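2024-03-11 09:14:02 DEBUG pipeline.ingest accepted 1 chain
2024-03-11 09:14:02 DEBUG pipeline.ingest length=232
2024-03-11 09:14:03 DEBUG pipeline.predict start
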Amino acid sequence: MTEMQKYPLPTAEREDVEEALGLLWHQRELGFTEGAMLRRSLSTAGSPEGFDRLIHLGFIKEELGQVWLTPTGEELARDVTRRLRLAERLLTDVLSLDHTAVDPNACVLEHTISPEVTESICTLLGHPGECPHGHAIPPGACCQKNDALLSPIVKPLSRMAAGESGRVAYLQLKDHPELHRLLALGVIPGTPLHLHQTFPAFVVEVGESQLALESSIAARIFVRRAELPEMS
């Protein structure tokens, strides 16, 4: 009989710690590291004692009014952030849940999915770089070696072959000047498209239009593979 790896369900305290570290990670992304402000943030989020608990557990330290993640805290904060944002992508891109149901369900999944499942989700989604809210997803080992055993359900248009069809899952074009043009041309999530050629430009058919896209733009359009009829 094959020995199975067991992952006990996290305790309520563990979940609180992960929630607090995830919040601190996001606040740092926004440029906030001031201790008093972060204390208020945790209190507002329902964890008034969370700040001191994280210090006691050795996950953070406060020096001269600034808060720093310790190496242990950095690792756990990064991991829980990765799990949460991949769960959000899974629920949005694969299960197509309404946005009102994504966040509460992702918050449950982030505490329970194992490292192996996390990497499989990432691979299945084509190693996405952003969550549906536009925040960066910390890469994992699977992203670095990129030798996935699973065939991605969602992948960049730049990695599709000529003749393939699918539906736009999401655009990773934050602050990119091409974003508004693509949206105006109908390249929005859920839109079916067909890739005609990949060189010298990526030529896609979207509705009644054919668009020629540079590879840098095609790499930022993520497409969900689908069994679609050929477009004429």
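2024-03-11 09:14:41 DEBUG pipeline.report The first helix runs from residue 12 to 29.
2024-03-11 09:14:41 DEBUG pipeline.predict end
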